[in-house]
Structures
1.
Amino acid sequence: MLKNRFFKNALGIEFRKDSLVAVCLRKDLTGIKLVSSISIPSGYDPFNEDEMLELRRFIAQHRIDTKNVSVSIPAEWSLVKFMDIPSAGEDAINQLLHYELERHIPFSLEDVCHASHIVERGGDRCRIVTVVVQRERIEQINEFLKKLSLQPSIITVSSFSILNSIELSGYTTNILKEITGLQKPSKIFGSKKDVCVALFMEQDNWDMAVIKNGSCIDLRRINLDSGRMDSAWENIAHEMSSALSGLSVQKADRLVISGQLAPEHLRFISDKAGMPVKIIKELPVSVHNANNSDADMLMPSVGACLAGYGLGSMAINILPDKSRLMNKSGPFIAKLSAAAILLLSVWLAVSGINKENRSIEVVEKEIKKNEPELRAVETISSELSSLEKQKKFFNSVRENSVSKLSILAELTGIIPADAWVTNLTYKEAKNEEPSKEKGANKVSAMRYEGEVIINGFANSSAKLISLLENSPLFENVEFISPVTKGMQGEYSKIKAMVVKPGRKEADKKQ
Amino acid sequence: MKVFPKLRLKLKLRKREKVILAVGGAVALLIISYHLFQRYEDFNASAQNRSEAKALYLKKQVEKITEKDNIKAKLENAKKELTELERGLLSGDKPPVAAAELQKLLKEIAMSLNVEIKSERISTPIDMGPYLGIPVEIGFTAPTAKLKDMILRIETSPMLLTISALDVRVMNFKNPAEVYAVMTVKGFLRKQKTEKVGNAA
């Protein structure tokens, strides 16, 4: 679609009364350009094979896309009729229009090609423009184009082509605007509420169109043959007031002029008009290699060609099978682009998440792959930890236990000579697994190796307590029965806790 | 002949109403877009966190796997060391057999010191994690020097033995040359997998 819309040369042909004008337009990234134009002079017989050579050469030289061909025919070949009819349902309007056409045209409906368009809606009535052309003329044009291997996409009337050109003056487009649909509508004919009168030259005649809300609601030919400008202006003013009163419009808001008028005449009209006047001198496309001096002459063919691109609101296509060939892809492209942008945004958003998910998937796959090996490592680790625990048991038995000989030696060393031990009991503290112990018992199991109970005589039993307490092996030394006095001195029963090796020294250091 | 290119919606609105509708629509669209964006951000952040967590887990997994050879070597060393240490355990599959072995060992020590064991008693085995403590109580009369030697021999025995209780009584206060000692010696036995042991004594 985009390829068809861009970078292809389109052909605009205007059939004039005594000549043929052809333009080649090119639409590229920067906009629409007029590449070349050709005017085949008077006396030209369009249906003569020999005389078509020049046009054939033009087509071949510019590599015209054979399906991008727009045709403008002279206003004389057509009958343009504006009708006010009741605003009813679609079917009713179609029937009414059918009836009105049969009443107004001097031909049978089968012998003509026609196109109708609602140009204004207001209350219970609507205004319709109908363009009627003899079928024979259209067939002749088609035959002519067929010989050149061309297929028209639009056939319109030159008055509407020129209006299209005027409307698109100052209009710029490029691929970005077209794709995003951000093209600003043309303001040549003013805003929606404005009524504009367009005065333009169609071949050698002057036409006047009344534009309202972007649609041509009246079109008439006016006579400006008079050499004097004041009488010409009178004609213009008369026709304008007649057209506006017929349309129940009090006053036009602006005047647009396009055509060959002397500067002094333009000044005269500007003075007399009493409303803003806009002069259109240039073509609505940038000129690439072609000569822009004949802008007025090229207006219809360029306007038709732009209508072929789907631009402008003044195009009426009288081609019988218009729906197939009319190039109205602009809005479609805009919608397509919007959808593409939306999809792209969604894709970007989703792709970010998708990327993360894919990376997670890769990592998960790797984790799953490593799991058997990890299980093996964990088994080895747990086996190692179990062995370490067993080793720890041996160490605790060997290194943490206090030698009973050292207890006896310590007691022998610290008990004074005047004291006698009659009974010594050592009992190991419960040596279950520390984790099974709770609270104070746990602390006790971790700190004490066991307990010693000493029975005996001494001159001073109290002195024994302090002696034992000062020993690195004993702690919590206390009498566990009352001290009694006998023949050999004081009899006492003392209990002391045996501290695990190094514990007491460690406490002192702290 | 068709004049209508498409069906038109006949909805008559004033300009002010149209502006309000358009502004309202735009605000609604903005709010919806903001919420959608927030949700998207949250989802994205959670996916990122999940991805980071998984990557960290993988890193740790790989580190652990890399350590495999090292752990294996440590395991081999530990096994060797433990085999060496377990030489000090009592032989025999069952606690009574081990207890008998311990009794025999204590008798040998006593005999070597010319000490006569007067009483013997086997206590209930004690559960000590992977091992069982096999306590054997012996009673004998001996001079303190021989008691010292007895304790020394037990504590320096190549077997893993500990004295868990000791009761020393002077036989005669006036002549305290001999003492009566009751000693509980504990040997150790590797717990069999199917072994069921009562509470610790």
2.
Amino acid sequence: MGSRLANVLDSEGHEVTVVDRNQQSFRRLREDFGGRTVLGTGIDEDVLVRAGVEGADVFVATTEGDNRNLMAAQLAQKVFDVPTVIARTYDPGRSEIYEKLGLKTYCPTLVGARLLHEMILGKE
Amino acid sequence: MYIIVVGGGKVGYYLTKELLEQGHEALLIERKSERVDQIIEELGNVALKGDGCEVATLEDAGARRCDILVTATGDDEDNLVSCQLAKSHFGVPRTIARVNNPKNERIFRVLGVDVSVSATNLLMSMIEHEMPRRALLHLLAIKHMGVEIVEAVLPSGAPSLGKSLTELSLPVDSSIAAVMRNGAFKIPSGQLTLEEGDEVIAMCKGERESELRTVLLGSA
């Protein structure tokens, strides 16, 4: 999902940097991807600085781990003052609690369930 | 006291064992069921199988009435989230986290964890105490103010030798707190002139430390 988002944003002309701890993941980026790639974990402040977090307008955390996303997003928001920060969180419970703490979260579980519900019963 | 420990590795296991021996009520939360069984066999019914980062598990563990929650897993992100849930959702008064990446010791406090402990930083400060030359020893950190209390033993050739305290151009946000000479305490008045072998106790803001070292000991 991260690489797909990166490809779209890049083709729209935005400046995009992808951080991943696995080199293989960068192969999912399109051949003409014009952004940067940084190898490392997004919960390490040194890695984030290398990725240019200090001047970023938007930071999105979409790894497979809820806690990793929540930690990386809070680093971006509270330590590096990135204005717009979003963390993917599968667990609806954690998603709700961190929303209350002022972090924007995207919960695929809730969104997916809603979509499936619509597909089964039609839009209300 | 009721203390919840998250993570049943070596750190969490021995911590729980010590707490129980000291007469506290302690519960260990661990994800792997074989490990939970093993701990129950050794320590009694004091382990709960579950994810300490899930609200439901913390609820089962009685987080609402817990006095201290300690996270001791090998993953910093799990330790952080567990402490934050305990604090914000269950109102646990004190949260303590083990950090694996030493840089997270500071970051965790910014993110609301009461106490963060890095074994690497502890070992580093032990090593610094063992090699006093040309370095400032960290005696104490007043962490919430970012102030360090440090000690320097002045070697021969140090730029500060023969200077009175008023003549030292100390960096801003730093001051000399005491000077020990031949085991005796000297009041740090402006006229006091520094000599070789003096033990100088100083306090400074963390970011001023290298400037202070240069003034007292010379550049590394």
